[in-house]
Amino acid sequence: MSEPSRTLLLWSPRIVGIAVCLFLGMFALDSTGRLPDFVAHVAPVLALLVAVLLSWRWEWVGAVVFIGVAFAYAWMARDHLAWIPLIAGPLLLAGILFSLSWLRHEELRA
Questions:
Q1: For residue 47, how many other CB atoms are within 10 A of its CB?
Q2: CA–CA distance from 60 to each of 65, 80, 97 (Å)?
Q3: What is the pLDDT along the chain (110 residues), one digit of tens a residue?
Q4: Fewer CB within 10 Å, N side or C side of the chain?
């Protein structure tokens, strides 16, 4: 594997994971201004951010969490089909990238 490919595969899941957290965090800005509403919107984002931090060392954590959250969201939002690609799509992309990074862990760290 070439050096640019290795660098891309190593860093892309982390960057996409952080970007997904920032994207989902923007939805907290539409809370009604009360603290409980804001916390309810931010808590899932903070949990995903913790998953990204854990995935920095153990990529399988990001793979499991992001793919699991993508499928869970798709199941919960099945009445709103237009929302699924918008929210679950980036989550699934991050999970797949973490999976690829995990499968190539030894090669990437060499």
A1: 12
A2: 8, 30, 10
A3: 788 888 888 899 999 999 999 999 998 888 777 888 888 889 999 999 999 999 999 999 999 999 999 999 999 999 999 999 999 999 999 999 999 999 988 777 66
A4: C
Residue 21 CA to residue 48 CA, distance in Å, equals: 7
Strands (E), 1-110: none
Q: What is the radius of gyration, based on Cα positions, of the chain?
A: 15
Measured CA to CA, the distance from residue 19 to residue 90 in angstroms comes to 9
DSSP class of residue 77 equals T
Q: Report yes or no: 99 and 57 within 8 Å, Cβ to Cβ.
A: no
Model confidence, pTM: 0.89
